[in-house]
């Protein structure tokens, strides 16, 4: 009935990797050429890890299957230091140097690969075909992003599968771009409760990245976070914690102990601790996460509010309701000031406040904040989004607790309709709503209806104990 609070860094997972195309700097006399790589400017940490000492050249993220770079022997994880004797300073400089050349031009590259430097020659290829395929990938990424925001996870999964197929055709099944596509697929499957499928996709992405980028690359940590989230959703907390610990070690080593990505992994680790009932450990980890965010972004940044929300949820589980209301109110003030009163993240905090008020038997106040959250989410996402269903379900629970059973049945029924339509009949959120409806029917003495509602969740869960979501971040 609630929304999970993992930090998925979906924006990073859905981001397009930049492709290098040659661009003419003067009048067009030749067809522009391409090397056929995806790349980025080296970070200081990457420069130190490769022994360069300072950022110079470009890091190769991926190479096109059968393209000039692959033919020349360039591999993911290589660093291109120079082109035709010109030292490369960064990504923009590389584009400038290659942009002065055209298709059919042979270029000699100095490449650092696994600690050894060599000279490789590549003939730039025409870019027209590459542009067409890149445009299709861009369109798929945009469609995937839009469907994700709309909560249409089933449709998004279909797009993610098509994107994976396209990337594998163009770059091969072991390319880092295929791993990125698998990350997206795993996320969409996770959101639908397809945890076995999500785990398979995530583990395959992990194997590709470890092989092509090395076991300590920052992108490996991102995939580890996703796999850890799947395990946590499955109730496999010990394995999830081990995965998060490894992701944390990588990010601290590569990015430094005070990077916001470290805070994101700490947040996920704390979620697993909370679900195990290890509340003091969760509070300790959440506190460190908040310290990092506050140091990086200030005390009034919305990202800090996410950690405050999570901390408030732990306090609620401990029965520390006064402290929970205090930190959740602080989160609400931050979000309303930074994002505006109608932002969906404001609705997230309102939902969490409603949960605490309900625990305190302050049902009218709970219903009030749930109603406001519902209005925000309906405006932001439409009438058939999973967040809307969560608002309806939570408000219906408060109505039922207050003895307003007719209102509770209406709310649960509408939430069930949305969840079955958007998430499918076998999602665990559907099971939660069915169970909630059954409890109301039982309170009304409608025992046959109640029995149907209690049996249906067992069919959904197939006899497995699956944890409920922990609130909204």
Give structural notes.
With 473 residues, this protein is α+β, with helices and mostly antiparallel strands. The protein has a domain at 22-126: Roll (Pdz3 Domain). The chain contains 20 helices and 8 strands. The strands form 2 sheets. Strands 2, 3, 4, 5, 6 and 7 form a 6-stranded antiparallel sheet that branches. A two-stranded antiparallel sheet has the order 1-8. α14 (321-339) runs antiparallel to α15 and α19 packs antiparallel against α20 (447-461). It is elongated. The two termini are 14 Å apart.
Tally of DSSP β-strands: 8
Helix and strand element order: HEEHEHEEHEEEHHHHHHHHHHHHHHHH
Average pLDDT rating: 85
What is the name of the CATH topology of the domain at 22-126?
Pdz3 Domain
Which assembly state applies to the chains in this document? single chain
Backbone CA Rg: 25 Å
Beta-strand content bin = 5-15%
Q: What would CATH call the architecture of the domain at 22-126?
A: Roll
Shape: elongated
